[in-house]
Design brief:
The chain is built from 2 helices and 32 strands. The chain has about 375 residues and is mostly beta strands. The protein has a domain of about 40 residues. It has a 5-stranded mixed beta sheet, with no helix packed on it. The protein starts with 15 loop residues before the first strand and ends with a strand.
């Protein structure tokens, strides 16, 4: 990828309000209980989920390359749009970002755009390119109730950001479409990148090696960003202007990486990763081959949490899934309040993972032995 001009004017210092003292006290632990509903049909790879105001769901399946509107009460499931590159079409539906009035922004990575889904389920011809007019790529991670788009530049090496990328430090940005403005809310840490760029070049390395420590974050509807810091495990909330609040560090014992953890990572890559292939002139999404663990560089221990581990609730909590050893009998989620303090832990079986939140609801995927994904709905 190439750009015409450099990113400029995005650096903004943050005046932080910190809450010192390490968190020692035990917090309540509980599971989610029994699901209040289960969908009758599985997904191949649920890539996006959004709850509408009437309780229906929008769901995107990346491997099936399909978009659905689902009524859990009536048990109906109807497909929206169709596969393709034209208006009202998509090639790889992914994250579904809630907008006011039951409108939704759908991420379509293969078509490199965001598509507006109207409240009646029609796909608008209105789309947003995943390249900012200034030239840098956009990988959206959240949208607030005003329709502002949040993303970071972690894993991106480009003119003007070489030093930051080499240090593993990237701006976390908010794009206000109506004003055409991009603001920097803070910075996130990620595995440092090596090398330099040629004039006008942008290099993207979003994957990285296994069990790499990086900050994870998520956005609330009111525009606050909860950042889980991996170097000194804590949660920091960033908001509009020069303001932040940081909770106390969380003590933890790093998980050592042995043979079982290496094999577990390879299994996860083969069962949850995605690759794109050309087939008869059409692009298809599928699973990658299982990596050879002997050809991979491994750190000694895991970070406190892994990639894509942070999810914000509509009410403003941040849930962070902890890293655990292979064969663990439960998955542990730390729940943080709006001051950055851990207030409780939620436990899930190892074959389940959280994929989203709704009004008083937790949406969970259960993976069966055939790697099919079954959606369950819990009350929280």
């Amino acid at each position: 990828m190439h750009i015409r001009r450099c990113l400029a004017g995005t650096v903004m210092a943050l005046a932080g309000l910190s809450l010192p003292a390490t968190a020692h006290a035990q917090v309540p632990r509980a599971d989610l209980g029994s699901p209040r509903a289960r969908l009758a049909e599985p997904f191949s790879s649920l890539a996006g989920l959004r709850e509408l105001s009437d309780g229906r769901l929008l769901a995107a399946d990346a491997i099936e390359q399909s978009l659905w509107i689902i009524d859990p009460v009536r048990g109906t499931r109807d497909q929206l749009g169709r596969q393709g590159q034209g208006p009202g079409e998509y090639e790889m539906p992914g994250d579904l970002f809630a907008l006011p009035g039951d409108s939704t922004l759908m991420l379509d990575r293969l078509n490199r755009r965001l598509t507006l889904i109207l409240p009646d389920g029609r796909l608008s011809t209105s789309t947003i390119s995943l390249r900012h007019p200034a030239g840098f790529p956009i990988f959206p991670r959240g949208v607030d109730a005003e329709g502002r788009i949040y993303f970071d530049l972690a894993g991106i090496m480009m003119p003007g950001l070489e030093d930051a990328a080499a240090a593993g430090r990237a701006p976390l940005l908010r794009w206000t479409l109506t004003a055409g403005a991009v603001d920097t809310l803070g910075f996130v840490q990620f595995p440092p990148m090596a090398g330099v760029t040629r004039p006008g070049e942008v290099r993207v390395e979003l994957g990285g090696g296994p069990y790499q420590g990086r900050d994870e974050w998520s956005v609330t509807p009111d525009g606050r960003v909860g950042v889980a810091r991996h170097q000194d495990y804590r949660v920091e909330w960033l908001a509009t202007g020069r303001w932040s609040v940081s909770g106390p560090p969380i003590e933890y014992t790093p998980v050592k990486i042995g043979g079982a953890e290496k094999e577990a990572w390879a299994d996860a890559m083969a069962t949850r990763g995605l690759v794109v292939e050309e087939e008869n002139g059409r692009r298809r999404v599928g699973r990658p081959p299982r990596p050879d663990v002997n050809r991979v560089e491994w750190p000694d221990v895991m970070p406190p949490f892994l990639a894509q581990a942070a999810r914000a609730t509509p009410e403003g909590e941040l849930w962070v899934e902890r890293a655990g050893p292979a064969g663990a009998t439960q998955r542990v989620w730390d729940v943080f309040d709006q001051s950055g303090r851990r207030v409780r832990q939620v436990l899930l079986p190892p074959d389940r993972r959280i994929v989203g939140f709704g009004s008083g609801a937790v949406y969970v995927i259960r993976v069966d032995p055939d790697d099919l994904e079954w959606l369950e709905i819990y009350t929280r």
